[in-house]
Amino acid sequence: MQESQKTTAPRHEQLARELMGTALFRGIAREETAAMLGCLDVRERTFEPREIIFRMGDKIRALGIVLDGGVRMEHVDAWGNVSVLGYVGPGDAFGENYACAPDVALLVNVMTVERTRVALLDVTRVLTLCSSVCPYHTKLVENLLALSARKNIELSRRAFHTSPKTIRAKLLSYLSGEATRAGSRRFTIPYNREQLAGYLSVNRSALSNELSQMERDGLIHVRRNEFELCAPGGQR
Question: Positive or negative, the Cα torsion across 228, 231, 234, 236?
């Protein structure tokens, strides 16, 4: 890969500072990150709200890292029904599993939630070690494997939340999981009502009605996408 022979341009310096805090480059110093950017064919792009980055049916070789903004993964069936499969915010990656299997067509659209800036990099270059097997390149591959494993766990989590038969049971499962993830009974979810309905594969109106009923029953307090789970008896 010969990262050390690459010149470090000011653009690479700035991008390296941003990438240091991301999951893929965690544990890799800024100088080492900057040295790899050219070899990894990293490209910065800015997308407008609700713009598709990767489309269902595409075959990709690049993975993306969100620098600013956010993206979500949506599946659209033949009748136009949308299911939200996940959300990716700043510092996290998307498309890595498909990029590692470039002969497999995407089953989802990857779409921006807001104006979003991303870094796109060729996963083939990530997986191709340089002749000197640089320790920081090995760390990059380790981080990629960890990312892929975490995404697979996230898909399993969604399957767990959508398996109950009733909307209330789906919500209780999802909200309990988010509270555990946040380490608090108070937390914010990354979805609005329509997106949450898509994530849980339920009707939006029925979801809103159930949330209102759960609040009347003293199970939750909710304001937009901010939730608080109540203790037994409806106490905060």
Answer: negative
Hunting for tokens 């990354």 — which residue is that?
190
Strands 82-88 and 93-94: unpaired
CA distance 83 to 71: 14
Instruction: pLDDT tens for the chain, 236 residues: list them.
Output: 444 334 445 567 889 899 988 989 999 988 888 888 877 889 999 999 999 999 999 999 999 999 999 999 998 888 888 888 888 999 999 999 999 998 999 999 999 999 999 999 999 888 887 665 567 888 899 999 999 998 888 888 889 999 999 999 999 999 999 999 999 999 999 889 988 998 898 999 999 999 999 999 999 999 999 999 997 655 55
Please tell me the pTM assigned to this model. 0.72
Q: For residue 36, what are its two tokens?
A: 């790899």
Q: d(Cα 228, Cα 188) in Å, to the nearest integer?
A: 9
3-class SS at 17? Answer: helix
List of E strands, the chain: 43-47, 52-54, 62-68, 71-76, 82-88, 93-94, 109-112, 116-122, 186-188, 220-223, 226-229
